[in-house]
């Protein structure tokens, strides 16, 4: 972050996983980071790990009517919102014909509608200051078809669409909007899943030119770049961080 101005970021789902990796990258570079989630204990553990630049806030983002006041409270406490990372999301693995309407709507509400609503309220604040950067987290499920994740795929494909639409509308007002599409990123869960399914593991690595899983920090560094001044002429892009998986044969 080349600009010495104090920056304030919101990272949803910042208490664990990719959100925590993004918050780690931000705080290491002096960005005051508000991590948002539903699990107070998880957020507190993250704050202990990240230090004084990390500020945990408990908020259920699917309670849409609460979001305007939530964003207003952050603006009043910190003075501005310079960066928003829409990372929070849920997944469900189910056969297409077993997915209920309620299943589908739940994932769309969490992964898409809450992103729209929170972004709208944050953008209102960013327009006042005439600047801002929004980073949405997409998925390889939006890049190509993956079985048994129909709801998740729909939500993440829509995320890429609203990223481009927001970028075209908001960039003239100084607000850049980009997205990251993570590939196979290491976690205890993904490692265990692949090791228990040798056929799937072979398929994953055979079509990943770099031949390995990424690390959560890879997503953190990508978000730091897109959010920062080094990417000041980049907007509306979906950046795959996947070791080449999306272009692998």
What does this structure look like?
- Helix 1 crosses helix 8.
- This protein starts with 7 loop residues before the first strand and ends in an 8-residue tail after the last strand.
- The chain has eight helices and seven strands, in the order E-H-E-H-E-H-E-H-E-H-E-H-H-H-E.
- The model has no long low-confidence stretch (mean pLDDT 95).
- The chain has one domain (8-185, 215-241): NAD(P)-binding Rossmann-like Domain (Rossmann fold).
- It is globular.
- It has helices at residues 17-28, 40-50, 67-78, 101-129, 150-170, 188-195, 198-206, 216-227, and strands at residues 8-12, 32-37, 54-58, 83-86, 132-137, 175-182, 238-241.
- A seven-stranded parallel beta sheet has the order 3-2-1-4-5-6-7, with helices on both faces.
- It is α/β, with parallel strands linked by helices.
- This is NAD(P)-dependent dehydrogenase (Short-subunit alcohol dehydrogenase family).
- Belongs to the short-chain dehydrogenases/reductases (SDR) family.
- GO terms for molecular function: oxidoreductase activity, acting on the CH-OH group of donors, NAD or NADP as acceptor.
- It holds the Pfam family adh_short_C2.
List keywords for this structure.
249 residues, seven-stranded parallel sheet, Rossmann fold, 7 strands, Sc_DH/Rdtase_CS, alpha/beta, 46% helix, globular
Please give the structural blueprint.
Layout: E1 8-12, H1 17-28, E2 32-37, H2 40-50, E3 54-58, H3 67-78, E4 83-86, H4 101-129, E5 132-137, H5 150-170, E6 175-182, H6 188-195, H7 198-206, H8 216-227, E7 238-241
Parallel strand pairs: 1-2, 1-4, 2-3, 4-5, 5-6, 6-7
Helix pairs in contact: 1-8, 3-4, 4-5
Pfam families: adh_short_C2
InterPro entries: NAD(P)-bd_dom_sf, Sc_DH/Rdtase_CS, SDR_fam
Organism: Pseudobacter ginsenosidimutans
